[in-house]
Protein backbone atom coordinates (compact mmCIF):
# COMPACT_ATOMS: atom_id res chain seq x y z
CA UNK A 1 0.00 0.00 0.00
CA UNK A 2 1.20 3.51 -0.79
CA UNK A 3 1.54 6.33 1.74
CA UNK A 4 -1.97 7.78 2.00
CA UNK A 5 -2.77 11.50 2.12
CA UNK A 6 -6.39 12.01 3.15
CA UNK A 7 -8.30 14.36 0.82
CA UNK A 8 -9.33 17.67 2.39
CA UNK A 9 -11.61 19.80 0.22
CA UNK A 10 -10.65 23.49 0.51
CA UNK A 11 -13.06 25.22 2.84
CA UNK A 12 -13.41 28.27 0.61
CA UNK A 13 -14.06 26.47 -2.68
CA UNK A 14 -17.08 27.84 -4.55
CA UNK A 15 -18.70 26.42 -7.65
CA UNK A 16 -17.76 28.54 -10.66
CA UNK A 17 -20.07 29.00 -13.64
CA UNK A 18 -18.31 29.27 -17.00
CA UNK A 19 -19.45 30.38 -20.44
CA UNK A 20 -18.33 29.46 -23.95
CA UNK A 21 -16.23 31.68 -26.21
CA UNK A 22 -17.76 32.21 -29.66
CA UNK A 23 -16.86 35.05 -32.02
CA UNK A 24 -15.12 36.91 -29.21
CA UNK A 25 -18.14 36.82 -26.89
CA UNK A 26 -18.70 34.79 -23.73
CA UNK A 27 -22.05 33.08 -24.27
CA UNK A 28 -24.35 30.45 -22.80
CA UNK A 29 -25.52 27.39 -24.70
CA UNK A 30 -28.59 27.92 -26.85
CA UNK A 31 -30.34 25.28 -24.76
CA UNK A 32 -29.62 27.14 -21.53
CA UNK A 33 -28.61 23.84 -19.89
CA UNK A 34 -25.49 23.41 -17.76
CA UNK A 35 -23.25 20.47 -16.89
CA UNK A 36 -21.89 20.17 -13.35
CA UNK A 37 -18.45 18.78 -12.56
CA UNK A 38 -17.85 16.88 -9.33
CA UNK A 39 -14.20 16.92 -8.25
CA UNK A 40 -13.01 13.29 -8.46
CA UNK A 41 -10.60 13.76 -5.57
CA UNK A 42 -12.97 15.53 -3.19
CA UNK A 43 -16.50 14.54 -4.17
CA UNK A 44 -17.83 18.11 -4.25
CA UNK A 45 -19.14 20.27 -7.14
CA UNK A 46 -16.50 22.67 -8.46
CA UNK A 47 -17.68 23.96 -11.84
CA UNK A 48 -20.59 24.24 -14.26
CA UNK A 49 -20.44 24.59 -18.04
CA UNK A 50 -22.88 25.27 -20.85
CA UNK A 51 -24.15 22.04 -22.36
CA UNK A 52 -23.43 22.90 -25.95
CA UNK A 53 -25.16 21.26 -28.90
CA UNK A 54 -24.73 21.12 -32.67
CA UNK A 55 -26.30 24.58 -32.82
CA UNK A 56 -23.53 26.04 -30.67
CA UNK A 57 -20.93 24.14 -32.69
CA UNK A 58 -22.41 25.59 -35.87
CA UNK A 59 -22.07 29.11 -34.45
CA UNK A 60 -18.46 28.48 -33.47
CA UNK A 61 -17.52 27.02 -36.85
CA UNK A 62 -19.17 29.96 -38.63
CA UNK A 63 -17.19 32.41 -36.50
CA UNK A 64 -13.92 30.61 -37.23
CA UNK A 65 -14.72 30.46 -40.94
CA UNK A 66 -15.51 34.18 -41.08
CA UNK A 67 -12.35 35.11 -39.22
CA UNK A 68 -10.26 33.02 -41.60
CA UNK A 69 -11.94 34.33 -44.75
CA UNK A 70 -11.47 37.95 -43.69
CA UNK A 71 -7.78 37.34 -42.98
CA UNK A 72 -7.70 39.08 -39.60
CA UNK A 73 -5.21 36.51 -38.33
CA UNK A 74 -3.75 34.57 -41.26
CA UNK A 75 -2.78 37.77 -43.10
CA UNK A 76 -0.59 38.92 -40.22
CA UNK A 77 3.14 38.48 -40.58
CA UNK A 78 4.85 35.62 -38.85
CA UNK A 79 6.50 38.13 -36.56
CA UNK A 80 3.15 39.62 -35.55
CA UNK A 81 1.70 36.21 -34.73
CA UNK A 82 4.88 35.26 -32.91
CA UNK A 83 4.73 38.33 -30.68
CA UNK A 84 1.17 37.53 -29.63
CA UNK A 85 2.06 33.89 -28.92
CA UNK A 86 4.94 35.07 -26.72
CA UNK A 87 2.56 37.35 -24.88
CA UNK A 88 0.20 34.42 -24.35
CA UNK A 89 3.05 32.36 -22.91
CA UNK A 90 3.88 35.14 -20.44
CA UNK A 91 0.25 35.42 -19.38
CA UNK A 92 -0.05 31.65 -18.89
CA UNK A 93 3.00 31.82 -16.66
CA UNK A 94 1.41 34.60 -14.58
CA UNK A 95 -1.80 32.61 -14.13
CA UNK A 96 -0.05 29.26 -13.63
CA UNK A 97 -1.31 28.72 -10.09
CA UNK A 98 -4.92 29.35 -11.10
CA UNK A 99 -4.62 26.99 -14.06
CA UNK A 100 -2.95 24.36 -11.88
CA UNK A 101 -5.74 24.53 -9.32
CA UNK A 102 -8.45 23.89 -11.90
CA UNK A 103 -6.72 20.95 -13.57
CA UNK A 104 -6.01 19.46 -10.14
CA UNK A 105 -9.57 19.65 -8.85
CA UNK A 106 -11.35 18.74 -12.11
CA UNK A 107 -9.04 15.90 -13.18
CA UNK A 108 -7.96 14.73 -9.74
CA UNK A 109 -4.31 15.30 -10.66
CA UNK A 110 -1.63 16.09 -8.05
CA UNK A 111 -1.16 19.84 -8.05
CA UNK A 112 2.63 19.60 -7.99
CA UNK A 113 2.46 17.54 -11.16
CA UNK A 114 0.10 20.02 -12.82
CA UNK A 115 2.44 22.89 -12.01
CA UNK A 116 5.08 21.08 -14.01
CA UNK A 117 2.64 20.57 -16.88
CA UNK A 118 1.78 24.27 -16.99
CA UNK A 119 5.48 25.15 -17.05
CA UNK A 120 5.90 22.70 -19.92
CA UNK A 121 2.98 24.30 -21.74
CA UNK A 122 4.59 27.73 -21.43
CA UNK A 123 7.71 26.36 -23.10
CA UNK A 124 5.62 24.90 -25.94
CA UNK A 125 3.90 28.24 -26.60
CA UNK A 126 7.28 29.96 -26.76
CA UNK A 127 8.63 27.29 -29.08
CA UNK A 128 5.62 27.65 -31.38
CA UNK A 129 6.17 31.42 -31.39
CA UNK A 130 9.66 30.83 -32.77
CA UNK A 131 8.30 28.52 -35.48
CA UNK A 132 5.77 31.16 -36.55
CA UNK A 133 8.68 33.23 -37.86
CA UNK A 134 10.43 30.25 -39.42
CA UNK A 135 7.55 28.84 -41.47
CA UNK A 136 8.61 28.91 -45.11
CA UNK A 137 8.14 27.26 -48.45
CA UNK A 138 10.57 26.29 -51.21
CA UNK A 139 11.90 27.70 -54.45
CA UNK A 140 13.21 25.89 -57.54
CA UNK A 141 15.54 27.82 -59.82
CA UNK A 142 16.62 24.63 -61.54
CA UNK A 143 13.78 24.21 -64.04
CA UNK A 144 15.35 26.04 -66.96
CA UNK A 145 15.63 29.66 -68.00
CA UNK A 146 11.92 29.95 -68.72
CA UNK A 147 10.52 28.60 -65.44
CA UNK A 148 10.68 29.48 -61.77
CA UNK A 149 8.92 27.25 -59.25
CA UNK A 150 7.82 28.41 -55.82
CA UNK A 151 6.09 26.26 -53.21
CA UNK A 152 4.08 28.21 -50.64
CA UNK A 153 2.87 27.03 -47.24
CA UNK A 154 -0.53 28.45 -46.36
CA UNK A 155 -2.70 27.95 -43.29
CA UNK A 156 -5.01 24.99 -43.88
CA UNK A 157 -8.07 26.96 -42.71
CA UNK A 158 -10.50 26.11 -39.90
CA UNK A 159 -9.19 23.48 -37.48
CA UNK A 160 -11.34 21.73 -34.89
CA UNK A 161 -9.51 20.50 -31.78
CA UNK A 162 -10.99 17.92 -29.43
CA UNK A 163 -9.01 17.34 -26.25
CA UNK A 164 -9.24 14.75 -23.44
CA UNK A 165 -9.55 14.98 -19.68
CA UNK A 166 -6.25 13.52 -18.56
CA UNK A 167 -3.94 16.44 -19.46
CA UNK A 168 -6.41 19.28 -20.09
CA UNK A 169 -4.07 22.25 -20.45
CA UNK A 170 -0.96 20.49 -21.67
CA UNK A 171 -2.64 18.77 -24.60
CA UNK A 172 -4.40 21.85 -25.95
CA UNK A 173 -0.98 23.50 -25.72
CA UNK A 174 0.44 20.78 -27.95
CA UNK A 175 -2.05 21.76 -30.66
CA UNK A 176 -3.34 25.31 -30.52
CA UNK A 177 -0.11 27.38 -30.55
CA UNK A 178 1.13 25.59 -33.67
CA UNK A 179 -2.17 26.09 -35.50
CA UNK A 180 -2.13 29.77 -34.55
CA UNK A 181 1.51 30.06 -35.62
CA UNK A 182 0.47 28.78 -39.06
CA UNK A 183 -2.40 31.30 -39.27
CA UNK A 184 -5.37 28.97 -38.77
CA UNK A 185 -8.67 29.72 -37.08
CA UNK A 186 -9.87 27.15 -34.56
CA UNK A 187 -12.80 25.65 -32.72
CA UNK A 188 -11.78 23.92 -29.48
CA UNK A 189 -13.87 21.45 -27.50
CA UNK A 190 -12.31 20.30 -24.24
CA UNK A 191 -13.60 17.32 -22.30
CA UNK A 192 -16.83 18.04 -20.46
CA UNK A 193 -15.07 16.85 -17.29
CA UNK A 194 -12.10 19.23 -17.45
CA UNK A 195 -13.02 22.40 -19.32
CA UNK A 196 -11.98 25.12 -16.86
CA UNK A 197 -8.34 25.59 -17.78
CA UNK A 198 -9.13 25.71 -21.51
CA UNK A 199 -11.76 28.42 -20.93
CA UNK A 200 -9.28 30.38 -18.82
CA UNK A 201 -6.90 30.06 -21.76
CA UNK A 202 -9.65 31.68 -23.83
CA UNK A 203 -9.54 34.66 -21.48
CA UNK A 204 -5.78 34.85 -21.96
CA UNK A 205 -6.03 34.67 -25.75
CA UNK A 206 -8.56 37.49 -25.83
CA UNK A 207 -6.51 39.69 -23.54
CA UNK A 208 -3.33 38.98 -25.50
CA UNK A 209 -4.86 40.27 -28.72
CA UNK A 210 -6.01 37.20 -30.65
CA UNK A 211 -8.82 38.63 -32.82
CA UNK A 212 -12.44 37.67 -32.20
CA UNK A 213 -13.47 34.45 -33.89
CA UNK A 214 -9.95 33.12 -34.42
CA UNK A 215 -10.25 30.81 -31.40
CA UNK A 216 -13.68 29.64 -30.31
CA UNK A 217 -14.19 27.34 -27.31
CA UNK A 218 -17.36 25.30 -26.91
CA UNK A 219 -18.26 22.95 -24.06
CA UNK A 220 -20.47 19.91 -23.72
CA UNK A 221 -20.41 16.22 -24.56
CA UNK A 222 -18.90 14.65 -27.62
CA UNK A 223 -22.29 13.59 -28.92
CA UNK A 224 -23.78 17.03 -28.35
CA UNK A 225 -21.17 19.69 -28.98
CA UNK A 226 -18.40 17.63 -30.54
CA UNK A 227 -19.97 15.57 -33.31
CA UNK A 228 -20.26 18.39 -35.84
CA UNK A 229 -16.57 19.25 -35.50
CA UNK A 230 -15.57 16.20 -37.54
CA UNK A 231 -18.32 16.35 -40.19
CA UNK A 232 -18.97 20.02 -41.00
CA UNK A 233 -17.95 21.05 -44.50
CA UNK A 234 -16.35 24.31 -43.28
CA UNK A 235 -13.90 22.47 -41.04
CA UNK A 236 -10.69 21.79 -42.94
CA UNK A 237 -8.83 19.71 -40.36
CA UNK A 238 -9.53 17.78 -37.15
CA UNK A 239 -6.94 17.35 -34.41
CA UNK A 240 -8.02 14.84 -31.79
CA UNK A 241 -6.41 13.30 -28.73
CA UNK A 242 -8.25 10.49 -26.97
CA UNK A 243 -9.20 6.85 -27.25
CA UNK A 244 -8.53 4.75 -30.32
CA UNK A 245 -12.23 3.89 -30.58
CA UNK A 246 -13.30 7.53 -30.81
CA UNK A 247 -10.36 8.21 -33.14
CA UNK A 248 -11.70 5.64 -35.59
CA UNK A 249 -15.13 7.29 -35.48
CA UNK A 250 -13.62 10.74 -36.12
CA UNK A 251 -11.64 9.42 -39.07
CA UNK A 252 -14.77 7.85 -40.54
CA UNK A 253 -16.73 11.07 -40.06
CA UNK A 254 -13.96 13.22 -41.53
CA UNK A 255 -13.83 10.98 -44.60
CA UNK A 256 -17.23 12.33 -45.66
CA UNK A 257 -15.58 15.62 -46.61
CA UNK A 258 -11.99 14.34 -46.93
CA UNK A 259 -10.66 16.45 -44.09
CA UNK A 260 -7.10 16.23 -42.90
CA UNK A 261 -7.02 14.33 -39.60
CA UNK A 262 -4.37 14.28 -36.88
CA UNK A 263 -4.90 11.63 -34.20
CA UNK A 264 -2.99 11.01 -30.98
CA UNK A 265 -4.59 7.90 -29.55
CA UNK A 266 -3.98 5.08 -27.10
CA UNK A 267 -0.88 3.21 -26.07
CA UNK A 268 0.20 0.01 -24.35
CA UNK A 269 3.79 0.97 -23.91
CA UNK A 270 6.50 -1.61 -23.12
CA UNK A 271 9.62 -1.20 -21.05
CA UNK A 272 12.08 -3.90 -22.11
CA UNK A 273 14.68 -4.64 -19.44
CA UNK A 274 17.86 -6.70 -19.91
CA UNK A 275 19.88 -8.26 -17.05
CA UNK A 276 22.74 -5.76 -17.40
CA UNK A 277 20.47 -2.70 -16.95
CA UNK A 278 20.98 -0.16 -14.18
CA UNK A 279 18.20 -1.62 -12.08
CA UNK A 280 18.28 1.15 -9.47
CA UNK A 281 17.44 3.69 -12.18
CA UNK A 282 14.95 1.40 -13.84
CA UNK A 283 12.96 0.53 -10.70
CA UNK A 284 12.16 4.19 -10.12
CA UNK A 285 11.29 4.66 -13.81
CA UNK A 286 9.02 1.61 -13.70
CA UNK A 287 7.05 2.96 -10.74
CA UNK A 288 6.89 6.41 -12.30
CA UNK A 289 5.91 5.09 -15.74
CA UNK A 290 3.11 2.93 -14.39
CA UNK A 291 1.58 5.19 -11.75
CA UNK A 292 2.27 8.75 -12.92
CA UNK A 293 -1.08 10.53 -13.41
CA UNK A 294 -2.71 7.45 -11.80
CA UNK A 295 -1.86 5.56 -14.99
CA UNK A 296 -4.39 7.71 -16.90
CA UNK A 297 -1.80 8.47 -19.53
CA UNK A 298 -1.51 7.28 -23.13
CA UNK A 299 2.26 7.12 -22.61
CA UNK A 300 2.08 5.06 -19.42
CA UNK A 301 4.72 2.34 -19.14
CA UNK A 302 2.03 -0.21 -18.37
CA UNK A 303 3.84 -3.27 -19.80
CA UNK A 304 7.09 -4.43 -18.25
CA UNK A 305 8.89 -6.97 -20.41
CA UNK A 306 11.56 -8.34 -18.08
CA UNK A 307 14.32 -10.83 -18.75
CA UNK A 308 13.49 -14.00 -16.82
CA UNK A 309 16.79 -13.91 -14.91
CA UNK A 310 15.85 -10.66 -13.15
CA UNK A 311 12.05 -10.80 -13.09
CA UNK A 312 11.51 -11.95 -9.48
CA UNK A 313 14.02 -9.45 -8.09
CA UNK A 314 12.59 -6.56 -10.12
CA UNK A 315 9.00 -7.33 -9.11
CA UNK A 316 9.96 -7.44 -5.43
CA UNK A 317 11.82 -4.14 -5.66
CA UNK A 318 8.99 -2.41 -7.52
CA UNK A 319 6.51 -3.49 -4.86
CA UNK A 320 8.81 -2.17 -2.12
CA UNK A 321 9.24 1.20 -3.84
CA UNK A 322 5.53 1.48 -4.56
CA UNK A 323 4.88 1.47 -0.81
CA UNK A 324 6.68 4.84 -0.59
CA UNK A 325 4.54 6.58 -3.24
CA UNK A 326 2.24 9.23 -1.76
CA UNK A 327 -1.37 8.76 -2.89
CA UNK A 328 -4.38 10.92 -2.10
CA UNK A 329 -5.42 14.58 -1.94
CA UNK A 330 -4.75 16.23 -5.34
CA UNK A 331 -4.34 19.64 -3.67
CA UNK A 332 -1.65 18.50 -1.25
CA UNK A 333 1.79 19.40 -2.71
CA UNK A 334 3.23 16.13 -1.39
CA UNK A 335 0.80 13.94 -3.35
CA UNK A 336 2.24 11.95 -6.26
CA UNK A 337 -0.84 9.96 -7.35
CA UNK A 338 -4.30 11.48 -7.26
CA UNK A 339 -7.85 10.36 -7.96
CA UNK A 340 -9.44 8.37 -10.77
CA UNK A 341 -11.38 10.61 -13.15
CA UNK A 342 -14.86 9.12 -12.58
CA UNK A 343 -16.66 6.28 -10.78
CA UNK A 344 -17.41 4.68 -14.14
CA UNK A 345 -13.75 4.65 -15.12
CA UNK A 346 -12.79 3.21 -11.75
CA UNK A 347 -15.14 0.28 -12.38
CA UNK A 348 -13.60 -0.25 -15.82
CA UNK A 349 -10.12 -0.52 -14.29
CA UNK A 350 -11.35 -3.02 -11.71
CA UNK A 351 -12.92 -5.10 -14.49
CA UNK A 352 -9.54 -5.39 -16.22
CA UNK A 353 -7.94 -6.55 -12.96
CA UNK A 354 -10.57 -9.21 -12.30
CA UNK A 355 -10.31 -10.34 -15.92
CA UNK A 356 -6.54 -10.69 -15.65
CA UNK A 357 -6.89 -12.81 -12.51
CA UNK A 358 -9.43 -15.00 -14.26
CA UNK A 359 -7.00 -15.43 -17.15
CA UNK A 360 -4.31 -16.68 -14.78
CA UNK A 361 -2.31 -13.57 -13.85
CA UNK A 362 -1.18 -13.19 -10.24
CA UNK A 363 -2.19 -10.12 -8.24
CA UNK A 364 1.14 -9.22 -6.63
CA UNK A 365 0.11 -5.83 -5.24
CA UNK A 366 -2.97 -3.63 -4.96
CA UNK A 367 -6.08 -4.44 -6.92
CA UNK A 368 -8.66 -2.65 -4.80
CA UNK A 369 -9.91 0.83 -4.08
CA UNK A 370 -8.74 3.23 -1.37
CA UNK A 371 -11.67 4.05 0.88
CA UNK A 372 -11.29 7.72 1.68
CA UNK A 373 -14.42 9.56 2.84
CA UNK A 374 -14.67 11.33 -0.52
CA UNK A 375 -13.50 10.89 -4.10
CA UNK A 376 -12.50 7.75 -5.96
CA UNK A 377 -9.00 6.34 -5.59
CA UNK A 378 -7.33 3.16 -6.78
CA UNK A 379 -4.59 1.12 -5.17
CA UNK A 380 -1.34 0.93 -7.10
CA UNK A 381 -1.61 -2.47 -8.73
CA UNK A 382 0.93 -4.95 -10.10
CA UNK A 383 0.00 -8.09 -12.03
CA UNK A 384 2.70 -10.73 -12.57
CA UNK A 385 2.61 -13.89 -14.63
CA UNK A 386 0.93 -11.98 -17.46
CA UNK A 387 1.11 -13.54 -20.91
CA UNK A 388 0.96 -11.70 -24.26
CA UNK A 389 -2.48 -13.07 -25.13
CA UNK A 390 -4.22 -11.60 -22.06
CA UNK A 391 -6.46 -8.54 -22.49
CA UNK A 392 -4.55 -6.71 -19.75
CA UNK A 393 -1.38 -7.12 -21.85
CA UNK A 394 -2.97 -5.97 -25.09
CA UNK A 395 -5.55 -3.31 -24.20
CA UNK A 396 -5.20 0.13 -22.65
CA UNK A 397 -6.37 -0.05 -19.03
CA UNK A 398 -5.77 3.66 -18.41
CA UNK A 399 -5.30 3.23 -14.69
CA UNK A 400 -2.57 2.49 -12.10
CA UNK A 401 -2.12 -1.11 -13.24
CA UNK A 402 1.28 -2.55 -14.17
CA UNK A 403 1.47 -5.84 -16.11
CA UNK A 404 4.68 -7.88 -16.00
CA UNK A 405 5.69 -10.22 -18.82
CA UNK A 406 9.00 -12.06 -19.27
CA UNK A 407 11.36 -12.99 -22.11
CA UNK A 408 14.56 -14.97 -22.70
CA UNK A 409 15.96 -13.53 -25.95
CA UNK A 410 16.02 -10.07 -27.50
CA UNK A 411 14.04 -11.40 -30.46
CA UNK A 412 11.31 -12.64 -28.14
CA UNK A 413 11.16 -9.27 -26.35
CA UNK A 414 10.83 -7.43 -29.67
CA UNK A 415 8.08 -9.81 -30.77
CA UNK A 416 6.12 -9.27 -27.55
CA UNK A 417 6.53 -5.49 -27.81
CA UNK A 418 5.28 -5.45 -31.41
CA UNK A 419 2.51 -8.03 -31.04
CA UNK A 420 -0.26 -5.57 -30.14
CA UNK A 421 -2.24 -2.96 -32.07
CA UNK A 422 -0.57 0.03 -30.41
CA UNK A 423 2.77 1.69 -31.08
CA UNK A 424 2.99 4.96 -29.18
CA UNK A 425 6.17 4.64 -27.13
CA UNK A 426 8.58 2.14 -25.61
CA UNK A 427 11.81 2.03 -23.66
CA UNK A 428 14.85 -0.25 -23.64
CA UNK A 429 17.10 -0.71 -20.61
CA UNK A 430 20.65 -2.04 -20.94
CA UNK A 431 24.16 -0.80 -20.21
CA UNK A 432 25.10 -2.07 -23.68
CA UNK A 433 24.15 0.73 -26.05
CA UNK A 434 24.31 -1.66 -29.02
CA UNK A 435 21.50 -3.64 -27.38
CA UNK A 436 19.45 -0.50 -26.78
CA UNK A 437 19.92 0.73 -30.34
CA UNK A 438 19.33 -2.64 -31.99
CA UNK A 439 16.14 -3.32 -30.05
CA UNK A 440 14.96 0.29 -30.26
CA UNK A 441 15.21 0.31 -34.04
CA UNK A 442 13.09 -2.85 -34.31
CA UNK A 443 10.29 -1.86 -31.92
CA UNK A 444 7.50 -0.16 -33.88
CA UNK A 445 6.70 2.88 -31.76
CA UNK A 446 6.75 6.62 -32.31
CA UNK A 447 9.12 7.25 -29.40
CA UNK A 448 11.83 4.96 -28.07
CA UNK A 449 13.49 5.89 -24.78
CA UNK A 450 16.82 4.34 -23.91
CA UNK A 451 17.68 3.98 -20.22
CA UNK A 452 14.99 6.52 -19.34
CA UNK A 453 11.24 6.83 -19.59
CA UNK A 454 8.71 9.57 -20.42
CA UNK A 455 11.25 12.32 -20.97
CA UNK A 456 10.25 14.92 -23.53
CA UNK A 457 10.95 18.30 -25.06
CA UNK A 458 9.10 20.76 -27.26
CA UNK A 459 11.63 20.10 -30.01
CA UNK A 460 10.90 16.36 -30.22
CA UNK A 461 7.92 15.11 -32.25
CA UNK A 462 5.31 13.00 -30.50
CA UNK A 463 2.88 10.50 -31.99
CA UNK A 464 2.38 6.84 -32.69
CA UNK A 465 2.50 3.92 -35.08
CA UNK A 466 -0.42 1.65 -35.92
CA UNK A 467 -3.58 2.30 -33.87
CA UNK A 468 -1.82 4.81 -31.64
CA UNK A 469 -2.68 7.44 -34.23
CA UNK A 470 -1.39 9.31 -37.22
CA UNK A 471 0.52 12.55 -37.55
CA UNK A 472 2.91 14.12 -35.05
CA UNK A 473 2.68 16.92 -32.53
CA UNK A 474 5.56 19.08 -31.29
CA UNK A 475 8.91 19.31 -33.08
CA UNK A 476 10.04 21.73 -35.76
CA UNK A 477 7.52 20.43 -38.31
CA UNK A 478 4.50 20.86 -36.02
CA UNK A 479 3.42 24.14 -37.63
CA UNK A 480 3.61 22.56 -41.09
CA UNK A 481 0.94 20.04 -40.08
CA UNK A 482 -1.55 22.93 -40.05
CA UNK A 483 -0.71 24.08 -43.58
CA UNK A 484 -1.39 23.23 -47.19
CA UNK A 485 1.24 23.53 -49.91
CA UNK A 486 0.57 25.56 -53.03
CA UNK A 487 2.78 25.41 -56.12
CA UNK A 488 3.41 28.56 -58.17
CA UNK A 489 4.77 27.54 -61.57
CA UNK A 490 5.88 30.80 -63.21
CA UNK A 491 6.88 31.22 -66.86
CA UNK A 492 9.53 33.80 -67.60
CA UNK A 493 9.72 35.63 -70.97
CA UNK A 494 7.90 34.74 -74.18
CA UNK A 495 6.37 31.30 -74.50
CA UNK A 496 8.41 29.49 -77.14
CA UNK A 497 6.75 26.07 -77.22
CA UNK A 498 3.32 26.29 -78.83
CA UNK A 499 0.88 23.41 -78.99
CA UNK A 500 -1.23 24.94 -81.81
CA UNK A 501 0.93 26.45 -84.52
CA UNK A 502 -0.16 29.23 -86.90
CA UNK A 503 -0.87 28.34 -90.53
CA UNK A 504 -2.40 25.16 -92.05
CA UNK A 505 -0.95 21.72 -92.25
CA UNK A 506 -0.79 22.07 -96.07
CA UNK A 507 1.39 25.18 -95.81
CA UNK A 508 3.83 23.20 -93.69
- What's the total helix number? 15
Level of helix content?
Answer: 25-40%
Average pLDDT metric: 96
Give the amount of beta strand, in percent: 15-25%
- How would you classify the helix and strand content by structural class? alpha/beta
User: Major sheet: order of its strands?
Assistant: 17-20-21-15-14-23-24
Mind describing the biggest β-sheet?
A: 7 strands, mixed
> Radius of gyration, Cα only, in angstroms?
25 Å
Gross morphology: globular
Can you walk me through this structure?
The chain has 508 residues and is an alpha/beta fold. It is 35% helix and 22% strand. The strands form eight sheets. Strands 17-20-21-15-14-23-24 form a seven-stranded mixed beta sheet, sandwiched between helices. Strands 11-10-9-12-13-26 form a six-stranded mixed beta sheet, with helices on both faces. The chain has a three-stranded mixed beta sheet with strand order 2-6-5, with no helix packed on it. Helix 13 links the parallel strand 20 (381-384) and strand 21 (401-407). Helix 2 (78-94) runs antiparallel to helix 6 and helix 2 packs across helix 7 (196-208). The protein is globular. The N and C termini lie far apart (97 Å).
Brief synopsis:
The chain has 508 residues and is α/β, with parallel strands linked by helices. 35% of the residues lie in helices and 22% in strands. The model has no long low-confidence stretch (mean pLDDT 96).
Amino acid sequence: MAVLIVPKPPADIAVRDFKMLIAGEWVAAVSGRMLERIAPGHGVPVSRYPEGSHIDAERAIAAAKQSFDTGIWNSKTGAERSNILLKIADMIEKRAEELSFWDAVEAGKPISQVRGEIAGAVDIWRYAAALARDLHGESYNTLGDGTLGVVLREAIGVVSMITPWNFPFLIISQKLPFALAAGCSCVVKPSEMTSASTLILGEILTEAGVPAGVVNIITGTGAGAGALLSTHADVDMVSFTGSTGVGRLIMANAAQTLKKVSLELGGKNPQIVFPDADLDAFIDAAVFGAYFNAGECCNAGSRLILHKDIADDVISRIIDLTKKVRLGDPLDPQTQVGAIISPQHLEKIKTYISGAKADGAALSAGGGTVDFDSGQYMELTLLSGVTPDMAVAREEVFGPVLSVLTFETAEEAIHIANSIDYGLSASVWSRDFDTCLTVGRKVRSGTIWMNTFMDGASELPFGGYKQSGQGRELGRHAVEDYTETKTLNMHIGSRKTLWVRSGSAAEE
